[in-house]
Amino acid sequence: MVAESDPAPPVAVSHGPSRHIRLTSHSGAVGTPVIRWGAATAAERGPVIGTTITRAHRNVIGTHSGSYSVYRALAVAAGALSRDHRADLTNTAPTDVIGPYEQWSRPGAIVSLDPWGAMVAEAFATELAGGYDIRPTIAVTKAHVILPEIAEAIVKGRLHPDGRILLPSGAALVTKAAVEPVWYLPGVAARFGCSETELRRVLFEETGGMYPELVTRGDLEVFLPPIGGQTVYIFGAPRDLADPTVELTARVHDECNGSDVFGSDICTCRPYLTHAIEECILGAQRGGVGVVAYSRKEGRALGEVTKFLVYNARKRQDGGDTAEQYFARTECVAGVQDMRFQELMPDVLHWLGIRKIHRLVSMSNMKYDAITGAGIEVGERVNIPDELIPPDARVEIDAKMAAGYFTPGPVPDADELRIAKGRGLAQ
Ligand SMILES: [Zn+2]
């Protein structure tokens, strides 16, 4: 064993012919708070501690901030950040209290985020005062969101400023929450129907051995994965989300930087997002509440490089860009059609206490199945109006409808899918 003060990262080292593994981290160090995942109160559950300052306090695998943990390491390496820095949480408390809700302790309901993550400073004040470096994994604040599509909807008379949800300037008032991933490994394994041992082994191997504790520390059941998290935008009162008698308009949206931010017209992501925001504002103005949960799962979680490769493959294939070949081209490059795994997505809805979505703004059968499979009732499904679909995105929409995505209109047939509708690369 290596002493706690050893600054070296944990590594599995083989020693000659015996090939025994030397562990660099202790299990069950004295004074390490225990995590009882799914416990009914924060005190019983215990704090999630991913600090790198005092190794003996750690009760998770990985570190905080998701993918940004690597930038933190760079900042330390560059000498810009002291590795002993501790967050001063003064005045950082959530602007709105979310929960606790029954779902927080319902077995298996939440496995990919820490429902107590926003309440750290309050719930674990004693531990913080006692020297434990405990960090929030959720932050809740207020914002005004200003989108040209919403301003246009006001001009066209579809939206009306009320000074409460929507200001005359076109700004919509929201409560927003940032959520980092916190995975309870036994629960994640159960969600995907594999054994925890298998999940740990594959996570270890497919990250190039980045987290040896996945295979050496079976006692650590919580993993802070180096992936993007989620942002939740709430229109109306956050507490109303948990009241099934209040009309709830919701969209769960997966990141598409090209469309969401830059307005690229090959897909319907931004039009869908802004349409959902318009529906959320309308719902909140009717006395309901709206929510958009935005997940950092760029390009169906395949990443943007893969996504752009697929765009080229689609547009250069014989016969041009057709809906018939839409999913096949993705699979040729990525090996799968989709890597978003909506199985984990409903966790954020459970965190918000949601039991019923009256209006789900989505065509995705995968999202619908995941939400209803998690025990959340879905009323009406709201699809994107035809006039909001960019011409080049017709390929995507036709392919999705033919593949079983929800549509109130006719499903395109085989002949329809073979008609090239996508623009060429030179156009
Ligand atoms: Zn997109």
TrEMBL record:
Protein keywords: GTP-binding, Hydrolase, Nucleotide-binding
Chain positions covered by the region annotation Disordered: 1-24
Domain named GTP cyclohydrolase II: residues: 247-382
Domain named GTP cyclohydrolase N-terminal: residues: 20-206
Entries under InterPro entries matching the protein: GTP_CH_N (IPR022163), GTP_cyclohydro_II (IPR032677), RibA (IPR000926), RibA-like_sf (IPR036144)
Coiled-coil annotated spans: none
Highest taxon above the source species: Bacteria
Pfam families: GTP_CH_N, GTP_cyclohydro2
Protein name (database record): GTP cyclohydrolase II
